[in-house]
# Entry
Amino acid sequence: MAKLLKIEEGAPILYYERVGCTALGEHVELVQCWYEATHYKFRIHLTTKI
# Structure
């Protein structure tokens, strides 16, 4: 991964994974992302339907 991100081996990275589902709970999407940690911050807001 370090080679693909053009960073030093062992440098910190951010990993993000998301699974998208239909209203029936069927998985329809998988997203996996790796980011160079020195360039990004993540702010995630989660909500649930009751």
